[in-house]
Specification:
alpha/beta; 4-stranded mixed β-sheet; 2 domains; 24 strands; UDP-n-acetylglucosamine1-carboxyvinyl-transferase, Chain; globular; about 425 residues; about 30% helix
């Protein structure tokens, strides 16, 4: 893993040029690790995410009896447990990973043993009631502490439910589907806003019986999973920072090879196109249900326009909203974000941190409970950036600093290693100074 300093100096750039092949998609890596741990046989995964979050998922399935090894070529090999996780005498440490904790709760709720899931200080503040509630409806015995971790699970025989998610959440949907895989009957999850569908695609790849309609997904219980061999596509959430960086400079030209282009994740490309960026896609193919291809981005010659992100679009772009807000001052008409309350309960209060750091760089910004107004046509100066220990804040403001006057300092830069330890090295590679 690349070493990342606790502070990082970001110098202004003149341009963004080059080509990148990014580490494996975090969302897909989590799901392949967890399902591979439950499946029959040996799952082999190339280009598995290099982030600490996905390492937490691997460590948890290893503690539950799966055999996890790294081959000489870097491929992750997971020998599954044939559907039966063993008892763990020690708490399962999910680190900083909400994905690990919430989805693993769904996998463990039907297992006939007792488990405790714990995390770091940040994860221990994140809400878990949204997962406990539907799993309890299925018959799960789950206890929280004031709605948070530690999550204590005593496995039960579960029954199918028909559940409508009150707040769009791919993690909650996944937890219910993972539990439904091992429950009696057919479990259905309904959502008003379609969230990312990596779990549905991964479950199918591993052999589950999954059916999709416009607003729901159903899974039949009692199906044994089998191992797979897969190359995890490049991470769109990681690409977001470089896509936005390239959009800042009129002469930019950046290419991404083998990038994941799942339609529930590629909405950012539509937003950047609406802002005026030129996006090209080549060599499209499907791998284990996931769309993969080559992406090329050029910035608009006369600068980005502006946009409003709200409703279903805000839910689909929830991870990309911090970096879009961070480049908002450099657009002509600004970026307006609404219906993004979920940002308040991520690894940090991302709305508050984005507003604070933009103001530190001299920008005007208005903060709302569910979003931000970032006016366009502004010039930013260098500042000391408070990442709040949040990887996406650290990376988002590293991008903004590329167009600021002077040398910015990113405090808590090491947090990028949670999801993307190579970030700063790759940014230096493509930033022309």
């Amino acid at each position: 893993m690349t070493e990342v300093a606790t502070e990082r100096i970001i110098e202004p750039a003149r341009n963004i040029l080059g080509s990148l092949r990014l580490p494996g998609d975090k969302s897909i890596s989590h799901r392949y690790a967890l399902l591979g741990g439950l499946a029959h046989g040996k799952t082999r995964l190339a280009n598995f995410s290099s982030g600490a979050d996905c390492a937490s998922s691997l460590a948890c399935v290893a503690a539950l009896g799966a055999k996890v090894a790294r081959a000489a070529d870097g491929t992750i090999e997971i020998t599954g447990t044939d559907g039966h996780f063993r008892h763990s005498e020690f708490p399962l440490d999910c680190g900083n990973s909400g994905s690990t904790m919430r989805m693993l709760a769904g996998l463990l709720a039907p297992q006939r043993s007792a488990y405790t899931l714990v995390g770091d200080t940040s994860l221990s503040r994140r809400p878990m009631e949204r997962v406990r509630k539907p799993l309890s409806h299925m018959g799960a015995d789950i206890h929280l502490t004031d709605g948070h971790a530690p999550v204590m699970i005593r496995g039960n025989q579960l029954h199918a439910i028909d559940y409508t998610t009150p707040v769009p959440s791919a993690q909650v949907k996944s937890a219910v589907l993972f539990a439904g895989l091992q429950a009696s009957g057919t479990t259905t999850v309904r959502e008003a806003v379609r969230t990312r569908d990596h779990s549905e695609l991964a479950l199918r790849a591993f052999g589950a019986d999954v059916q999709r309609t416009i607003d729901s997904v159903s899974i039949a219980g009692g199906r044994q999973l089998h191992s797979i061999e897969a190359a995890v596509p490049g991470d769109m959430s990681s690409a977001a920072f470089f896509l936005c960086a390239a959009a800042l400079f009129p002469e930019s030209n950046l290419i991404f090879d083998d990038l994941g282009l799942n339609p529930t994740r590629a909405t950012l490309l539509d937003v950047l196109t609406a802002l005026g960026a030129h996006i090209g896609m080549l060599n499209l193919e499907e791998k284990n249900g996931e769309l993969v291809g080559t992406v090329q981005v050029h910035a608009p010659q006369d600068g980005m326009t502006g946009t409003t992100i709200s409703g279903a679009l805000a839910a689909q772009l929830i991870d990309e909203l911090p970096v879009l807000a961070a480049i908002g001052p450099f657009t002509k008409n600004g970026i307006r974000i609404r219906d993004a309350q979920e940002l308040r309960v991520k690894e940090s209060d991302r709305i508050a941190l984005v507003a604070r750091n933009l103001r530190a760089m001299g920008a005007e910004v208005e903060e709302f409970e569910d979003g931000l107004d970032v006016p366009g046509g502004q010039r930013l100066h260098a500042a000391e950036i408070d990442s709040g220990g949040d990887h996406r804040i650290a990376m988002a403001f590293s991008v903004a600093a590329l167009r600021a006057r002077g040398h910015s300092v990113i405090r808590g830069a090491e947090s990028a290693a949670i999801s993307f330890p190579e970030f700063f090295d790759l940014l230096d590679r493509v930033a022309e100074r």
